[in-house]
Amino acid sequence: MPYNNQLDEKVFSKVWENDSEKLTVSIHSYNKGQKKLQITRENKNAQGDLRFAKLGRMSKEEIEAVLPLMQEAIPFMD
Buried b / exposed e across 5-32, counting CB within 10 Å, b at 16+? Predict the structure, then answer.
């Protein structure tokens, strides 16, 4: 069965942003299934536009910013 965007429910979403990037912590449930946490990264290019990038490794600053958002997301997992 192919992916259907209409079945993907966003339950929670919070963003942390600095001058060069944006990290989003969100909770999704696909087709009323198990709720799962997702972290995405977007980097700003020279024109200031955001472009999706692999999350990969995180700096201490990023971890310190994302951990409270993850803690805030936990109650939405039930």
Answer: eeeeeeebeeebeeeebebbbbbbbeee
The rounded radius of gyration (Å) of the Cα atoms in the chain is 14
Bridge partners (DSSP) of residue 66 are none
Whole-angstrom CA distances from 72 to 2, 12, 76, 78 are: 31, 9, 8, 13
The 10s digit of each residue's pLDDT in 19-47 is 999 999 999 999 999 999 999 999 999 99
The conformational region for residue 32 under phi > 0 = left, psi -120 to 50 = alpha, else beta, is: left
Q: Tell me the pTM.
A: 0.90
